[in-house]
């Protein structure tokens, strides 16, 4: 849904919306490409996860991430699985935190979201590859 820009972001909602700005940075109109990849706030989450996994810094927009996943995320191996799980988990938790910010007036805590993503990725990968060596540092 995020890759196809079909999420119910403020630019995709029909009708008059008083504020269509990104709820995280308040600098641009909220769209899926902006929310997940161009926003400076969600970008900090991606940067933390990319650094943790040792991914190239150039993965900073949706088309690049999709091309990279298509090239390196194929197969059933540990590294490919880790990349796919990390990308999907980042999108999921950024969207979840965005909704909690809007509807529950929660804080968008980059370090907490990053930690949650790391734990989710680790648990998912450990369940599929229990004997693998994987960085368990979550902070």
List keywords for this structure.
single chain, 139 residues, mainly alpha, 5 helices
Characterise this structure:
There is one protein chain. With 139 residues, the chain is an all-alpha fold. The protein contains 5 helices and no strands. The protein has helices at 32-38, 40-53, 62-72, 78-104, 110-128. Helix 1 crosses helix 2 (40-53), helix 2 runs parallel beside helix 5 and helix 4 (78-104) runs antiparallel to helix 5. It is globular, with a radius of gyration of 16 Å. It starts with 31 loop residues before the first helix and ends in an 11-residue tail after the last helix. The mean pLDDT is 78.
Sum this structure up briefly.
This protein is an all-alpha fold and about 140 residues long.
Average pLDDT level:
78
Largest sheet, in brief, is: none
What is the 3D shape?
A: globular
Proportion in helices: 55-70%
**Low-confidence residue ranges:** none
Q: Give me the strand/helix succession.
A: HHHHH
Number of strands: 0
**Terminal Cα span:** 29 Å
Beta-strand residue fraction: under 5%
Topology:
Layout: H1 32-38, H2 40-53, H3 62-72, H4 78-104, H5 110-128
């Amino acid at each position: 849904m995020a890759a196809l820009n079909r999420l119910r972001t403020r630019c995709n909602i029909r009708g008059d919306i008083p504020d269509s700005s990104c709820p995280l940075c308040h600098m641009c109109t909220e769209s899926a490409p902006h929310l997940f990849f161009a926003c400076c706030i969600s970008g900090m989450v991606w940067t933390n996860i990319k650094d943790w996994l040792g991914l190239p810094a150039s993965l900073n927009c949706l088309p690049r991430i999709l091309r990279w996943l298509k090239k390196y995320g194929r197969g059933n191996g540990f590294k490919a699985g880790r990349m796919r799980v990390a990308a999907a988990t980042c999108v999921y938790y950024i969207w979840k935190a965005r909704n909690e910010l809007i509807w529950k007036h929660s804080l968008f805590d980059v370090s907490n979201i990053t930690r949650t993503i790391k734990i989710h990725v680790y648990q998912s990968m450990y369940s599929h590859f229990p004997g693998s060596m994987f960085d368990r540092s979550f902070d």
